[in-house]
Amino acid sequence: MHMEQQYFFWKLAYDLVSRHNFEIVHLHLQHGEVWLEKSSQGKTHIIRLLQKEFNWSNQVKADIDHINRQMEKNRRYFSGRKKEMHVIYIAQYPPVDDFTSPSTKLDFNFNIVFLSDDNKENGLDDLTRRLGLDEPLTINYKLPDAPMEYESTIEYMKQQLITYKEKQKQRMKDVFEYGKPQLTYILLMLNIIVFYFLESVGSTTSISTLIEYGAKYNPGIVKGEWWRLVSSMFLHIGVLHIAMNMLALFYLGSAVEQIYGSWRFFITYFLAGILGSGASFYFNDAVAAGASGAIFGLFGALLYFAWRYPSLFFRTMGWNLIILVGINIAFGIMVPQVDNSGHMGGLIGGFIAAQLVDLPKMSHRVYQGSALLLYATLLFSLLFSGIRSEQQVTAGEIQYLQELNEEERYEQVVSMTEEKEDIEGEWEEEWLFQRSFAYLRTGEEEQAFEDLVRAVEIDPGFAEAHYNLSLLYERRGDESNARFHKERAEELNPELQSEAPEEPASSQLNE
GO CC annotations (predicted)? Predict the structure, then answer.
C-alpha cells in the first residue's frame, strides 16, 4: 500500500503543476513534501502536500501549528492580500481519533484535507472546488499488476517536477536579466553634466538660472514653451537634490531596464516624467525641476510588474518596494517644498506607460490601446486645464522677479512686468512690490509710487511696501504721510528699523 500512496502523492503534485499551472515553492523528494502556489482572481492559493501517516489528531495539530509558524515567518514571500492555505495529507488511513481544528489561533485561512484511501474521490472533488480549478482533479490511484512500471513512473514524475523547478528558476533569471542598464548610465551622466554646466554659468539654486535653462515655469509653458515639460527633468536644485535623485535612478533604473529592456525603459521613463511635469503644471504654480517624476515613474513600472508577475514580485522585491514608495509619499507630504503633484503624476504615468509598452514576451493589444488613450487623455486634461490667463500671477513668477531684483537686473523686471496689465490673483501685491522696487532702482519714482499705493491697499499689513512708500513721501516733502507709513512699517516688522536711511526695503517671498 505504501507504493499506492507514493504514486498518488507524486501524481497529484505533478498534475497540479503541469495541468493547473501551480508554481513550485518548495520540493523535498526524500521527505515527501511539496509546497505549491498559484494566484487567481485576487486570491493566492498555497498548497502544502505531505505524504505521512498520522495515528493521532494531536500529531496533526502539532504539524498545523508548525505550518502556521512557517507561514507567519514567510508571510511576505507569498503574493496577494487574500491567502488561503490548503494542507493536504496523503495517507492510507486518517487519525484514529476525531480531528478537530487546532485550539491555537491561526493567522491564515486553513483548509485541511485528509486524502486517505476511503476519501480520495470526495477529497479531490472538494479540493477542485476550493481551488477554483477549471478542470477536475481526477487521478487513478489504483496500482496495476506491474508495480515496477509504477516505480519508474514515480521517478519520472519526480524528475519532471525537478525540471519544472529549474525552468521556474530560469524564467525568473530571464525576467530579471532581459536587458542591460545602458540607458540608465547615460541618463546619470547627462543629469550630472547638466548640473555642472548650470553651476558653471550660475547656480542650481538660482530661480533665474533654472528658468532660463528649462525648469518647469508655468508662465513659460502657457506661452508655448512645451519643451520645459522634458527639459525640467534634467535640472536639479542643489547638491542634495541631484545626489538623492541619481542614487534612486541608479538602483531603480537598473532594475527597470533589466526587466523591461532599454527601449521600453526609455519610453516609460520619459512618458512618466512628462506626465509628472504636466501634473506639476496643473497643481503647482511654483518653479520646479528634477527627475523625481520620471523616477517615481520607475516605481510605477515596477508596480505594473507586480500586477503581471505577483508571485515573482513578492518573492523578490515585494513589500520592500511598496514600503519604499509609501515612505517617499509620506516624506513628500511632510516636506512642503517637495512637488508631490509631480511625484504622483510620474507614478501614475509610469504605471500606464509600462502597460503601454508591456513586459517582454507579453502583449495585449486591448490593454495597450487603452493605456495609450488613458495617458493621452490625462496629459491633455492636465495641460488644457492648467492653462491660466496670462494676467494671473503665480508664485513662480514672484520668485523669479524677486531673484532678478536681487541680481540687480532691474530693466528685465520692468520689461517682464510691463508686459502684463490689469493683473490679479493672490500674488498681486507682491507683483506690484517687485515692480516698484525695480522702478525705484531705475529712477522711475512716479510709477513706483503708484504700485506701492496699490500694494498697501490690497494688503495693509505689507510692511516693506509701507516702508518704501514712506521714503517716497519723504522725498515729496509729505512728512505726515511719510511718518505714518514708516511707523506702520516698523510696527509690522521691527527689523525694518535697521534699514539704512533712504534705502528701499526688499520683500522676501514666504515659500
Answer: membrane
